[in-house]
Structure formats: structure tokens, C-alpha cells
Amino acid sequence: MKSSLVTAALAVALAGSFLACDKGSKEIRLGGVGPLTGEAATFGVSTKNGYDMAVAEWNAKGGVLGKQIKLTFADDKGDPAEGATVFTKLIEQDKSCAIVGTVMSKVSLAGAPICQNAKIPMIATSSTNPKVTEVGDYVFRACFIDPFQGTVGAKFAFEDLKAKNAACIFDVGNDYTKGLSEFFKAKFTALGGQVVGYEGHATGTTDFKAQLTKVLAAKPDVLYVSDYYNDVALIAKQARELGFKGPMLGGDGWDSPKLMEVGGQAVEGCYFTNHYSQDDTSPIVQEFVKNYKAKFNAVPDALAALGYDSTYIMLDAIKRAGSTDGDKIKAALAATDLKVVTGQVKFDDHRNPVKSAVIIEIKDGKQTYKTTVNP
Amino acid sequence: MGSVFSFQQIVNGLQLGAIYALIALGYTMVYGIVRLINFAHGDFFMVGAFAAYGAFYLFNFFLPTGGGMAFAVLIMAMLGSGAMALLANKFAYKPLRYKPRLSSLVTAIGVSMLLEYLFSALPFIGPSPRGFPELMAKRMFVIGGAEVSNYVMIDLLVAAVLMIGLTILIQRTPMGKAMRAVSQDKDAAKLMGIDVEKVISFTFLIGGSFAGAAGLLAGLTYPRIQPYMGILPGLKAFIAAVLGGIGNVPGAVLGAFIMGLAETFATAYNSLLGEGIAFVILIVVLLLRPNGILGEKTADKI
Amino acid sequence: MDKLRLPKLAIAGAVFYAIVQILILTGVLNGYFVVIINRSMIFVILAATLNLINGITGQFSLGHMGFAAVGAYVSGTITTILCTHMNPHAFGDNLIFLAAIILGGCGAAVVGFLIGFPSLRLKGDYLAIVTLGFGEIIRTILNNIAYVGGPRGLLGIPKFSGFTVIFLFTFFTIVLLRNLVQSSHGRAMLSIRENELASELSGVDTTKYKVLGFVIGAFFAGIAGGLLAHLLQIAHPTQYGFYASSILLIMVYAGGMGSLTGSIIAAFSLTFLTEGLRVGIDWLRDTVGIPIGTEWTMVIYALLLIFIMLYKTEGFMGMRESKILVIEEKKV
After folding, report:
1. At CB < 8 Å, which residues of chain B contact A?
2. Please, what is the Cα angle at B118 between B117 and B119, to 5 degrees?
């Protein structure tokens, strides 16, 4: 029984590899990565939608370099080890000439060295941890980075919300949330504010009352919650239960309809920094929102926009490079100057785009645009 | 330091302890009866939470939210996980009843994995977390300087009612007597005419349904459910049962409340300590006093 | 006195190595396949060492990946610190890699020793829970040491693991384990499994052998962890949790408790099966449109474990060994 299973599996995999060899020259093969399952699942679904829509639009206009584009998507499950495996598979097995992805910094950090070693250009869609692009010159990203995001948050808290004291809650098991809190704290203190509470929680915690009780005892004006939407919803509810009435502030990890769904009244009147807002009146954003709604029957979040933008940036670079050679695409990427949904993309020396952030307010259970902050 | 041992933290710890107690009771009852650490017990907790979730959406068609609805959902949660426990017993544990204990343990691991991954694989459930609906309006009270929500009181109340009910069951009813007999000496009980398998099934049913009740309370209190939610609470409740003396019913309750408080205080002091405190307690107990606080010393029979 | 009959095993090993190497060089097997084969071999080491502890000595360890974690982090830290740019073809770098891996194994062995101690007093279920606890503690500690990356994991580990290196380590491990099991030490361990009390009364130093089982098992698991880290170029705490240890458990039970051959077969089969299922499920999801995810792979494995425990507890090979691995007794 076992040996026939093994043979069958081998046969399937071998067949797959032969199929891959055949079609290589007739299409442009792009690899896409994202978390379809796990703690950031809605991010992955949105990002994949973004990839798919972008590829469909380019293919409708004739593809790139005269060939149709084929996107192979792999689910990284939000897990670095799984990410390492699927990045390798997309490069070696599916022969991708370039990779877009992924969403979570910790997975991008696992995939980046693989792309760098294989000389395959990579654009991380929404990984905001600065270390991602430091891996090497084949690794780019489509979003702003956490030092900027944390700073924006701190400035908003201090200047707009007029907060003098702040407390931070973050996930010790998640580098993104940890880093974001650190940058927030640095800027907030530099502006003259006081961080009166700074508590971490273990990944997967559902009961935050112990930490919240501790930080709320110091009576902060604002609570900076740098977690992903799932945890934010719970933290917000429990904070309200413990009597906290002030505003809560966070990062782009908040961006999910589930936040309002689970958080309900608790997140009303709270804010977060994000990459774009669907209320933005500029034509390119409205066109994107309209097409996305028509295709997926949902309002696109920032993840979808970044997935879409990453694909556009990569395909634009391939077009300008005139080839699928990794080095040529890399050079073309470095010279990018493109207007996309989330802003104007021009890469700096560290292959990070210099972009603005928006502040989103949750009002009446919906995300509403509050203000834009430029770098 | 004041905010670590404050009354608020004590309230937090008791709330957590109540939920652990319900899970720990199931562990300890099953262990007392068949000497099996049912690894899948934490997953019965999860099943209960999902059963409650499903029941809510079903009942929502014709019942308004509130106390009555919550009660109905609680019953469904207990029935759901109780049924799951019966199934696990019948198909996975009973066939291995008289084989080496390690086989049952490994099978329990298999059942646990199966429940977790099956729930996350089924398209209508899925691996991603879901928000648990608000079954009844939340009201805040201030007691002794601490913010206490009506949810805390419900958690403690439900746990207390079930524990009292269990004590009455074990001490006053014939079935309870049979349970005590089987846990003392299975073979002697059989010789006395007790239908051992029926008693075992019943124990699984009760233990499982308690875990289900805990699942509902957890869904209510920390309104997020997902297929892997049972792993950590299950493990901690098991450690609580060991702390109190595995096989000992009051011990499970005692251990659970100590665990809830210890975890809350440790987390408030330092989140790293909070993560590891459960395992530290486990290792300390097993190395220093393996029979737990209320457990009796059993000599190794040569 | 048994003579170490290496030839049969050596020939089998050489043949395997040659076939795969030819396939790689001719390009039939691409990088992705090589990664799968490499991972299979690493899991052979992990499964075989878990078999030593669980199957042969009769203990019950549920935290085996914890040892691999120690090995991965120790060796990974050494290589990432010593050279910012390491060249897998430079002789000096190769030595450092070798030393790092061995040191990783030693670190894991120390941890194995520390865990072996409680095993003296505990049996069955309790031992299982304590080893599980230790595995989780190791994972939690690693998650919180910022120096080795904490929750980000240890990154940028140079890619030293290649087919040849992994093959050599795996081969060496199998030979050593085989010789151990079929020696008088191995028989002592088996006697502990069968009946610890009788074994003790017969004069077997059960303490020494139980701890020895853990230490040797941990040492090679640490080596396997180091090899894996240098293959994936990352060591992350989530790779070494209970989930990962459960997979090892399935491999050992599927292959057969106490059978090295079984562990080898199971490790290869399940690693290939996982990838095959991934391809299959991805195809079903993307091309056919059925909404399923790779969670079904784990559902299948869970069912496999339950099935084995209920109907074929002895696993695929039971306690038999393939002829290739059996040391022949010298006929008097």
C-alpha cells in the first residue's frame, strides 16, 4: 500500500515537472505567495485577488513581451518554514522568473534569501519590516516600512489626538508587531510624550486581561496596539471591559473587515495607519476600487491594493527590461518610477519605495479616511 | 507591582480558572476511570465552542439574544462535545482498552490531530479564526475597585453549578457510585455486575460535555474561536489536573484555580514568564510531588 | 562475537547515492526535488533517533524536535557569526560547517541528558507529558532570545547542506544506530522496553541505558536539525513545536516501532507524500476549483496514525529489519 502511494506521488510530481519544462518559453511565469490560511488569512486572500486581477488586466492587453502571463500561487500559511519551501518550489519547480510576495514580514524574511541566492527578483507586497530588503539587491518591496509607520502613528497620537501618555501592547512572537511598537515608542518619546506601559503578550493569547490591567493602571491617553486584526479585536474588547475609554491606534495589520466584525463597538473611534484608502478620490484608486468590486464583490483593502501594485511594478519592470533575465529585471526595478494605486513608486537605495501613509478612522463600523501623512 | 496582584488581576485569574476547571474536570474523570490522558480533550473544548457558534446562528432565526438563547446554546455546546467524546471513546479508545496504555495515548494524539485538522480543512469551518457572537449584552459593574463584567459572573456561576451538579452525581446517585467503583478497581466492579463499558461511556459523555461548556464560556469571554484553540487551554487544564492530583475531582478544581491565578500574575509580571509558567508548574509537580496536592500516594505494585 | 558486516549496507548506500547524483547531474531532478530528497534523509535521521528512544528503549518522548531545534540554533549561530559570507566550496568554510554541526549535536546531547534525568522516575504518560513540556519550553526560550532572532527566527544561515553532506551524515547515523541496536548495549535497551523491572533485576543498568538512549537520540537529532537549518537557510521556533514532533511520531509508528528500516521507508514515503499531496491539492484548488487547502494532508496523516494504532500497531515493518541492515552473526 505504501509503496504504491509513494510511486503515485512521485509520478504526479515528476509529471508536474515535465509539464513545467514544456511551456516555459511560451509564457511569462510569475510566482505569487501569500497566506491563505492562518492568522493573516484575509490578507492572503486579498493579496491573491490583487495578483489575479493585475495579471488578468495585463493579459487582456496582450500580456508582456508579447506573451501571456501565468501566475502560480502558493499558500505560505503564514509560516516561515512553509514559506521557505514554497519559495523554493516556485523558483525551482514552477520556473518562475520573478516572485511577488509575501504579506507577512517573517515569511518574506524566510523567502528573501532564497530569491537572492537564486537571483530571482522579488517584491514583498506588504512586509513592512526593514530587514526584508536588507537581504540583498534582488529583494524589493511595494509598501512603506515600519520605522516610517511607527513614526506616523506616534506623530498622530501626539499632535492630533493630543495624547501625553501612551501604552503599547504587542505580540512578542511576531517581529512585525514588536518592531512597530519600538518605532512608535521611540518617536513618541522624542516628541515629548511618555510611554507609561509597554507590554508584550504571547502569540495565540486570547486572554489579555493581565497585561491590559497592568498598562491601564498607569492611565494612558491612548493605547497603541500593533497586532494583527484578530488580536486587536480581542484586545480592544477586553480593554473596554476593563474600563478604558480612550482611543486605540495601530498599524496596517488592522486592515480587515473582520476587525469591525469581531471588535464591534470596541473599535469604534479608533485609528490605524494604512497604505491607501478606498475613499481616495484620485482616478487610479477609484478605477481600481470599481473593477475590484465588480470582480470580487467586495471593497478592496490595502492588501489587495498592494498585491495589485506589486504585480504591476514587476510586470512594468519586465517590460522595460525587455527580457526575463533576473539581472535585467532587477536593474529595471531599481529604475522604476510608476504611479500605482497606493502612490508613486520610486525605490530608494534600500529598494524601499518612498510613499505616504494614510490614517483610517473606524466610524460607524466602517473604515473612513482621516488624513494623509507624507514622508 | 501593585497592578500585578491587584484585586482586578485576582478577578481575571478566577475567571480564567473557572474555564480551566471545567476542562480539567473532564481530564481527571477520564483518567480516574481508564487511566488515559485524553489528549483530545482540549479539542472537545473546541468542538463545544464551534457547536455553540453553529447553534447560535441556527437559533438566531427564531430566538432573540439574551439569557434564554444563551442557555439553549450552552446545552447545544455540551451536547455537541459530549457526543464527540462518545464517538471518540467508541471508535478510538474502546478497541484499545485492554492493550498497552501507550497505544491509547498515541491514538488520543491521533484523535486530537484529526479533530483540529478536520475542522480547519472543512470549507465551511476553515482554519482562520472567527468572531464569536455576543449572546447577551455585556454589562460592567465595579466591585472592590475592579471592573467586573457580567461575563465574569456567568463564567463563575456556570462553572459552580456544573461542579456542584457533578459532586451530587458522584456522591448521591447509583451511576456516581458505579463511577467511583470502576475508578477504584475496574475488574472488581465488573465482577460485582457493573456494566463497566457503560460507565466509561457515561464518564466520557460528562467529561466531554463539561469541556463543551468551557468552550462556550471561552467563546463568550474571549470572542474568537478557531480549530486550534483547544491545544493550549487543554494542556494547561491537564497540568492543572495534575497539580491538583490527577483522578481527584476536587483536586482538578483546586489545581485549575491555582493555575488561572498563577498564569494571570505571571503574565502581568512578565509575558515570557506567563508563557512558560504552566510548564514550569508541570515539571516542578512531577519532580517533587507527582501525585499532586490532593492526590494519594500509590505504591508501585511489584 | 558479531563482526561488523558493512559491505551489504555500504553497497546499498553507494547505489542510492550514485543513482540520485546521476539524476541530479543530468538535470532530471531539479532543485525542488533535491530539496525533497534532502529533507527525506534528514527526517530519516530524526525518525530513526526517535525510534531509538521510543521504539527500542521503550521510553516515550514527545519533544524530539526540541533536540533538533537546539542543534539547528547552535550550528546556525556558529556559522552565521563566524563568516558573513561563507563559501560552500572553500575548505576552511567546510571545516567550520562540520564543526558547527557536531557542536550543534553536542548541545542537543546535553539537553538530552538533562531531559533524560526526569525519565528515570517517570513512566509512560507522565514521561510523555514532561518531554512535551520540555519541547515547548525549548521553543519558548528560543522564541524569546533576541540574539538569535527571537520570533523572527535565525536567518541568513549559509546554504551548506547539499545532497552529499546530508547523505553522508544520514548513512553514518544509520550505521551507528544499527550497530548500537544489534550490540549488547542494544539488547540491554530492548530488555528495558520489554520489562524494565525484570531487566533491572537481571543486572542491567537501566539508568545508564535510558539516559544513553536520550543522549544518543538527541545528539543525532541535533545534527539533523543543523543540517535542516543549513538547507532551508532559516531556523524558526515554530518549526520545532509539538506539531513537528507529532509528524515524527507518525513516521516512527508507520514504519514500525523498533525497526530502523521502517523509519527509513516511512521518512521517505511521508516526505514525498506531503509534497505530492501539496501539488495535488494545489491543482484541485486552482485548476478544478474545489475549495480545499493543504490542511487535508494533515487530516490524512491523523487518520493514518489512528488506523495504524487500531489495526496495525506494529506498523509497516513491525520489528523486522531489512536484510541489508542486519549484521550477520559469524558462523562458528
Report:
1. 2-4, 6, 8-9, 12, 15-16, 120, 126-131, 134, 138, 140, 147, 149, 151, 218, 221-224, 228-229, 232, 263-265, 267-268, 271-272, 274-275
2. 90
Taking the model in full, what pTM does it have? 0.85
DSSP A231-244: HHHHHHHHHHHTT-
What pLDDT does residue B184 have?
Answer: 85
Identify the weakest region by mean pLDDT among A303-312, B84-93, B223-232.
B223-232
Residue B147: strand, helix, or coil: strand
CB neighbour list of residue B118: distance below 8 Å, 6 or more residues apart: C299, C302
Of A193, A234, A182, nearest in space to A39 by CA = A234
Architecture of domain A2-144+282-355: 3-Layer(aba) Sandwich (3.40)
More confident residue, A349 or B275: A349
Q: Is the pLDDT of residue C89 over 70?
A: no
Please report how the helices C260-283 and C242-255 are oriented relative to each other, as an axis angle in degrees rounded to 10: 120
Contact state of A234 with B271 under an 8 Å Cβ cutoff = no
Closest residue on chain C to A84 (Cα): C232
Q: How far is B90 from chain A (nearest CA, A)?
A: 27
Sketch the domain layout of chain A as residue ranges: 2-144+282-355, 147-274
What SS3 state is found at A200? strand
Band of residue C6 on the pLDDT scale cut at 50, 70, 90: low
- At B140, which helix (H) or strand (E)? strand B140-143
Reported as a single tens digit per residue, the pLDDT across C28-52 is 777 778 888 888 999 999 999 998 8
| Single-letter amino acid code for the residue at C205 | D
CATH architecture label of B7-126+137-288: Orthogonal Bundle (1.10)
Report chain B residues whose CB lies below 8 A from the CB of C118.
283, 286-287
Classify A140 as helix, strand or coil: strand
CATH architecture type of domain A147-274: 3-Layer(aba) Sandwich (3.40)
Place of cell 485549575: B256
Give how far C196 is from chain B: nearest CA, Å: 12
